[in-house]
Amino acid sequence: MHTTRWLTGALLSAALLLSSGCAQQGEASSKASDDEASLIPVEVVTPLRREMLATYSGTATLEAEADAEVIAKVGGEVLRLLVEEGDVVKSNQLLATLDDRQLRLQAAQARAALAKAQRDYQRQVELHEKGLVARGAFEGLKFDLDNLRAAHELARLSLSYTEIRAPFAGIIATRSIRVGQTVPVGAALLRVTDPTPLKASVFIPERELSRLQVGQPAGIQVDALADKRFLGKVTLVSPTVDAATATFKVTLEVDDPSGELKPGMFARVGIVFDRRADALTIPRAALVENDDVRSVFIVAADKARQRTLTTGLTNGGDIEVLAGLDGSEQVVTVGQNGLKDGNAVRVVTLDVDAAR
């Protein structure tokens, strides 16, 4: 009986101790959970060193180095058409011919009239030297001869215009005529373009004038070839600003050795006006801006610490840090809004490339 009571008491004491231990563990666990819940969750990245480019972005339409419409200088029926759109032509190559019969006859008339006038003039020279022709009459004959000579040259020039020739080497961009068509003087017949090299003209706000200069590199992309990037360079910076638009013109030369780009394409242009080879960078999303002061929060010993920064170039989603960080810090990129210096924080993501 005594043994039974002793066992019962021992078991009861053990149960009480177990219950007490569990309660203490539960209280500790609950306190730990409460402490963790009080920490502010943040995401961080480590600053990266990389090349930074400062660019001005704009749009432009690609233009050929030389582009000209071939205009009819005389009227007439199109007798022959020797080229088609897309054909490569040489300078002064014959492209088409117009009916030249009337102009050829006019040139023959002018030539005959000039020949007769020259014979008459030679006879008058002999008589003039003998004093048989008055000076005034002789000079009038000379003026008539000069006039007929000019008329003959003009007739020959008009006749030559019936041969339509390329003004320079290039490609036939458009053809506006067909065989048998009668074209008037001044009609556009064809358009010849020389796409090497292509040009792009960008109109830039005057505040950027001091940053841009001849020789700066540029990147060019077109919607039709979205996966390709072409290189270019600044070849001309206009010395004047358009007062109506407050912009100045910058001309780029585009490098396209494979000939994929075409005149008239819409292009997106980025002109590089500054470059840093080994810049310390952070995501722009990490910045906390107050008035003109830029700062970030870093995580040190599970505390948020605010650092004031001096920043430099901006490129896409990254910004250069000139002073304020040494590159080893964990910079808060998510959760920094509302943080205060000294707040306890909990890092939920530590991924150097998360925001890059």
Tell me about this structure:
The chain is an alpha+beta fold and about 350 residues long. A hairpin with a 2-residue loop joins strand 16 (about 305-315) and strand 17 (about 320-325). The model is unreliable at about 15-20 and about 30 (pLDDT under 50). The chain starts with a helix and ends in a 6-residue tail after the last strand. Helices cover about 25% and strands about 45% of the residues. The strands form three sheets. Strands 2-9-12-11-10-13 form a six-stranded antiparallel β-barrel. Strands 6-5-3-8 form a four-stranded antiparallel sheet, with no helix packed on it. The chain has helices at about 1-40, 100-130, 135-160; strands at about 40-45, 50-70, 75-80, 90, 95-100, 165, 170-175, 180-185, 190-205, 215-220, 230-235, 245-255, 265-285, 290, 295-300, 305-315, 320-325, 330-335, 345-350.
Per DSSP, what share of the residues sits in E-state strands of 2 or more residues? 35-45%
| pLDDT < 50 stretches | 14-19, 28-32
- First-residue to last-residue Cα separation: 79 Å
Estimate percent helicity.
25-40%
Q: Quick check: average pLDDT?
A: 84
Query: Shape, please?
Result: elongated
With strands numbered from the N-terminus, the spatial order across the biggest sheet is 2-9-12-11-10-13
- Overall strand count: 19
**CA gyration radius, whole angstroms:** 43 Å
- Briefly note the structural class of the backbone: alpha+beta
Major sheet attributes: 6 strands, antiparallel, barrel
The H/E string reads HEEEEEHHEEEEEEEEEEEEEE
Number of helices: 3
